[in-house]
Amino acid sequence: MPVTIRDVARAAGVSITTVSHAFNGYEDVGDETKKRVLQVAKDLNYRPSRVARSLVLQQTQSVGLLISDFNANPGSNHFLFDVLAGIHNRLAELGYDVTLLSTTTARQQLISYIDFCTERRLEGVIVMGMRMDDPYMQEVADASLVSVGIDLPILSRHCGYVMTDNVGGAKQGVKHLLSKNHRRIGFVNGHLHAVVSIDRLRGYEDALRDEGIAVDPELIVHSDFLVEGGEKATAALLERRPDVTAIFYASDLMALGGMRHLQKAGRRIPEDVAVVGYDNIDVGQWVVPALTTVGQKRYEMGTSAAEMLVGMLQRKEEPRACVLQADMVIRQSS
Amino acid sequence: MPVTIRDVARAAGVSITTVSHAFNGYEDVGDETKKRVLQVAKDLNYRPSRVARSLVLQQTQSVGLLISDFNANPGSNHFLFDVLAGIHNRLAELGYDVTLLSTTTARQQLISYIDFCTERRLEGVIVMGMRMDDPYMQEVADASLVSVGIDLPILSRHCGYVMTDNVGGAKQGVKHLLSKNHRRIGFVNGHLHAVVSIDRLRGYEDALRDEGIAVDPELIVHSDFLVEGGEKATAALLERRPDVTAIFYASDLMALGGMRHLQKAGRRIPEDVAVVGYDNIDVGQWVVPALTTVGQKRYEMGTSAAEMLVGMLQRKEEPRACVLQADMVIRQSS
DNA sequence: TTGCGTTTCCAAAACGTTTTGGGTACCATT
DNA sequence: AATGGTACCCAAAACGTTTTGGAAACGCAA
What we know:
The first copy, chain A, has 13 helices and 12 strands. Chain A is an alpha/beta fold. In chain A, helix 12 (about 250-265) links the parallel strand 8 and strand 9. Chain A has helices at about 5-10, 15-25, 30-45, 50-55, 75-95, 105-110, 115-120, 135-140, 165-180, 195-210, 225-240, 250-265, 300-315, and strands at about 60-65, 95-100, 125-130, 145-150, 160-165, 185-190, 220, 245-250, 275-280, 290-295, 320-325, 325-330. In chain A, the strands form 2 sheets. In chain A, strands 2-1-3-4-5-11 form a 6-stranded parallel β-sheet, with helices on both faces. The first copy, chain A, binds a DNA duplex through helix 2 and helix 4.
């Protein structure tokens, strides 16, 4: 049904070769014929078939986008969406198509993601939304398929990654509070067996030390990244050290819980206690006062991943770790 | 580099025909040889090339997903993301791949989306995030390409759509307030040149009439879907009719603005004034009190669109309008 | 012996491109 | 007249599958 190169050749009275050459910028086709061929092609509405092209060229110019748990990610939705947009837009600019691929459906079909990619001759894959303990991780690491992980710090022969500098991010957040002359700064961290918690703690400590302030263990409390946890942790912190003038939270959700408690306890924000969160979730800009926070450059993470992948694909670049600076968003809570 | 059907044939000592037949359930291959072929294929890690398959079969088993303004959609992000997940997961179950495609990318502005699809031999396309006045709309409507729109009420020869029942949704919201014995219910609508505003107004009026309550024009005020607009509209409404006991907003953002004003004006929610919004955005569950709202079944919209498209593709079903019921979420603000 | 079914296998064409290795005119030099 | 160069064009192979139309081998009935 669709019009092929053969139809164009016949209509223009030339060979298939000539049509192909006319389209692909070869020098050995006369101006006159070239014009005629292109005109005929346009008239017939000819579009060269990518699948035939892929077959003969042995490259599809398309990559997979592996999203873990595509349906059940209410928390990180916009995170994934923004990254997704970045990946796709940059990849499109670079001439690559992106095919979606989720672990949930792939698992249903009992086919590994590697098999999925080789069947389709995808040239590479970007992996996101996956946790370090995901069973797919092993496959990603071992794969001979070129891949880039988002927030997935695995570096192997064919596998690079892009993530955000959590140490630096936390440092920025605390430095911001220091610049507002706060000296007794509480820190509500997540559980310590998450990698980000360790990094953010480092950042908190580094910032204080840079300013010559001793780290006071009483000011540090651990929680679970969630709202209620933040609320309780804040209560405990205030009990222990009622003199804090600022609190840094390792997640926005905990910061929201904390603000709830602070307001209940009659502390004004930011006059009595300043608050800084982490993640830059949407809600932050709607609460009163609006939440100061440090977030990831989500769209940029996507574009970076896209560029890294294409670099590895086209210029045989070595896989590397791309660490992006965190993004400080200053609002009314500090 | 990748292992082909020829490699398998050679290794198993049969013709490529036999390998193909063994894989595709033909009856004319002996039990003994069939077992050997499959074993050899597994040993060699053979995966049939979809691109070669697509070429000879003249079908790619893959569809496009056209997303308008992929990068600049902060408001409706999770809406698109959830729909996207629904589309992809259902489509994967049905054996289709999905290729991303956005209107924004510079490269893709040079080439129409129809051309994009025919080049790749995509069998159909699902369109989302597009507004009725988008220049791409014309193309979608005229296309001979099979397509399904999300929230895009266009019905043509090859083009169906799925959207949410806005009349029914608004009706549900207002009925909920009526069931709480509210009788003077204000309505803060969006601008009237949006289709949804007209529908939601209809729903508001229908609900009141069903209960035998006259529609009071003084209780209806128009705004712009946004926070500040909702705030001002609420102020105006309270000025005009201080006796309202409930307000229905045509968007959550306006409801948030409204709640801000109500609290400033010293009205308790929901004791003095009950509030119901529309859209079910994430923020709604974090504000205090949590916002009652009516939303769309986002994931289900995706799966429905996927099923409709595949129905049109495989069973030659006629394009149709699929109208889903709205989703009432009752929280503390009402 | 011939003819006819089964069962199991295969050669070759086809799908729509790209690319290689020429070929034919034509003109300008020797 | 032969040679060489240039400008333009093309046939055919290749990419990795599926499918069509047999073919070979065998047994069985006439």
